[in-house]
Amino acid sequence: MTNRDRSLAVLVAICWGLNFLAIHASLEQYPPMFCVALRFGLLAIPTILLVPRPDVRLRWLIGYGVGFGIAQFVFLYAGMEAGMPAGLASLVLQASAPFTVVLAGVLLRERLTGRQVLGIVIAILGLAGVAWHRSQTAALLPVVLTLLGALGWAFGNLANRQARPSNPLHLTLWMSVVPPIPMLAVALLVEGPDRIGESLATSFTAEALPAVLGIVYTVVIGTVLGSGLWTILMTRYPSSTVAPFSMLVPVVGMSASAIVLGEHLHPLELAFGAVVIAGVLLGSTQSRRRLTPPLPAAYGADVPTGALAKG
Questions:
Q1: How far does the chain reach from its first CA to its final CA, in angstroms?
Q2: Which sign, positive or negative, has the C-alpha torsion 140, 142, 145, 146?
Q3: What residues form the membrane-spanning segments (predicted)?
Q4: pLDDT for res 73
Q5: Residue 293 predicted with pLDDT over 70
Q6: pLDDT score, position 38
Q7: What are phi and psi of 309, to 5 degrees?
Q8: Which of 221, 258, 180, 213 is nearest to 25 (CA)?
Q9: What angle do the packed helices 228-236 and 3-27 form, to 10 degrees?
């Protein structure tokens, strides 16, 4: 991976880490299932009107929308509504990285180098350390729901990887067309029209402003910018190279939650977060002795020679 693309991956981690604060704010105003429908609906309407449909197979577009858009956020929002702290949610959701690597190996037959395996193991140990420390105060159900969200994200990653669009941003935007209608139906059944109507009716009050800004952030920064860059990286490199960068998200999310929401950040958690960073850096940097030629065009364009660790 080039230094430029590595920097973009870190930028995505920052955008997604701060996204948990935005989700926390939006759930203060809107019911979780309706919140998922709202965030994607606001993006789907201009996408249908203004953006050409991506040149990918329909099954990969739907798979990306169902995995990344529906499964991930249904379980994540439900978990946070059930009491999952924003910082801890940003940590547990990153189980999507090892889920993605395992699924890519099983379903796509992607190979890992020893360096990548070591980096991922180190990062997972760091995540496990933070999870162990936080598990003393976390309820089981919110953690399970967030883990299911991570699994949904992993399946979305694979569909994203297999789609290989000529314009990754178009795929990211059209992914948002999949969730709104089914999620609105679920919201009406589970949360009811009265609760949804009340949340909309009070959206223009001063108390609702943080929630509205949270929705805007998740749409513009979390989805368009963050997911757009992520899609570009996933089309250029194997899933096992890109996915570990998502482990940086909890470092940002937990730090931001501690500062903004006052969530306690123990020194042990900071130490384990440093372990996560070390593992990601080790797994994403290439060995100078073992470089490979670029992938074929079908795997993504403009990958320079030696940009990928041998896989």
A1: 12
A2: negative
A3: 7-25, 31-51, 58-80, 86-108, 117-133, 139-159, 171-190, 210-233, 245-262, 268-285
A4: 93
A5: no
A6: 95
A7: -70, 150
A8: 213
A9: 140
